[in-house]
Amino acid sequence: MMNVREVPQVFFCEGDHLYGITHLPESSSIDLGILIVVGGPQTRVGSHRQFIQLARFLAQKGFTVFRFDYRGMGDSEGKHPDFEKIELDINAAIEHFLQSTPNVKRVAIWGLCDAASAAMLNAHKYDAVKALILLNPWARTESGLAKSYVKNYYLKRVMTPAFWRKVFGGDFKIVESLKSFLKNLSKAYIKSDKKVEAQIHHKIVENNDNRTLPERMFDNYAKFSGKSLFILSGNDLTAQEFKDAATFSSVWKQCVNIGNTEILHFPAANHTFSKREWKAQVEQWTVDWLKKL
What are the respective helix, strand and coil percentages of the chain, to the nearest 5? Predict the structure, then answer.
């Protein structure tokens, strides 16, 4: 088994101290380093120690890995920025990663949930970033959430024995449930005002861009010239929202058709791949894909 050193790191972003850990393989000729960007609200440890385990697994395979807390999270100083505003944090982490580990010449960003979204929004701005591994990107809009509930929640619910036990047992609140269903149906399929929807979810950016979050994600991702792997869970509303948004995005379809975007579906897994065997599968998919770069 390869020896791996774990070295604490301190660097700066806008005057604030940020903290992280570099996982250094004993010896490696691989010049591609992996930057784990944390989804919020999490720290560099990850839910059920996911990021630590991933970093150690990749380092055992010869990859140098850096995971860190951006401002306002974990050990790092400063005010917690919205995930759409961590561009500077990611850039500071990339620069420190390259400077502190001279063997790393190229960077791949690995991100889950809104960290994946942040990568889609910003990866094209970083010259050193050549690859993305993105899991269950956050692409929420009010109508998108409603569509996912209508398509993925209600249908599944009526197919379960527990639902019918409640119905025949007199415990099913039909009026409240019908109101909820009709409300989501209305949000899902009545055309909404994009500007209003964006304001509801705090997605207006400083240049008065009124595109929805998914539109900006896909438009910016199209500017990224590297290769990408997307891993999407089957038992996750966030992943379903992303899939639904992608279905209606001509920009996304063009990116996939170019051939630089690979998509893997994990039907059994939940949002954070909480079972050990699910995490192990993600780890293996990650390293297998990275070895092809």
Answer: 45, 20, 35
